[in-house]
């Protein structure tokens, strides 16, 4: 089966700082790096490295060939990514302090200018057994979700950056909603906890994650693995991409959760976002080491 991802593609400018600046303050960066990011690109890379077939749907500016190359090197199919001559590639300014906390400013650029007909053409092959991933960093989420569900595919929607109006529009077409703990609280406050969806994935950072089966009411909880984080940027995207890839492989939710938690644990020990996503062999080795350590304790 195939994961189609209507997702943002950003060029990340990452600045490492002793501490995050306060309002009106100018400080010197300790380091600067350029990398691949955007919630969509991050999730595509994560899912591809987890072993899924991933078709990325989105847009960049006319230049930045290295962005397309980086996605392709990770195993993502890039033929449906449009190059828009009148727009720049989306980009993000990411500030990270010594404790791995971050703050981020994003410019949407081409991510919010994808022509509807290009999206429809890119999704023309989606069908039953496939998955559509989407996040709130692009335009045309509603069109994509409606087309995917009409074709019999499942829709996994990451409601980030959180916007209640956007969520209300797309929710009738969503199979699984992915949110962090803060976004879950905002969703419940506005819409209640009895959401009209198949499942709810809630990531909770160092506390792990949970998956709620909305049909049966059962809740699966997955603790986070203890690691020393150096950069938490993209950790939620890593989790969502790996979880989607697990479902695409036919794994049950508990297995998909465990694999996603292991992948995110590895990812946060590395600098960067999309470039830091682990592959399947790394995750399986990590889980084997965890099991061995538990048996030896």
Topology:
Elements: E1 2-6, E2 10-16, E3 31-37, H1 39-49, E4 53-60, H2 65-73, E5 76-77, E6 81-83, E7 90-96, E8 102-107, H3 116-122, E9 131-135, H4 141-150, E10 154-158, H5 164-170, E11 176-180, H6 181-191, E12 199-203, E13 209-213, E14 219-222, H7 235-248, H8 253-267, H9 280-296
Helix pairs in contact: 1-7, 7-8, 8-9
Active site: 237
Organism: Paracoccus yeei
Domain Carbohydrate kinase PfkB: 6-279
Question: What can you see in these coordinates?
Answer:
- This protein has 297 residues and is α/β, with parallel strands linked by helices.
- It is built from 9 helices and 14 strands.
- It has one domain: UDP-N-acetylmuramoyl-L-alanine:D-glutamate ligase.
- Helices cover 34% and strands 25% of the residues.
- The strands form 2 sheets. Strands 1, 4, 5, 6, 9, 10, 11, 12, 13 and 14 form a 10-stranded mixed beta sheet that branches.
- β12 (199-203) and β13 form a beta hairpin.
- The longest helix has 17 residues, at 280-296.
- The protein is globular and about 50 Å long.
- The model has no long low-confidence stretch (mean pLDDT 94).
- One of its GO terms (cellular component) is cytoplasm.
- Its cofactor is Mg(2+).
- ATP binds at residues 180, 203-208, 236-237.
- Pathway: Carbohydrate metabolism; D-ribose degradation; D-ribose 5-phosphate from beta-D-ribopyranose: step 2/2.
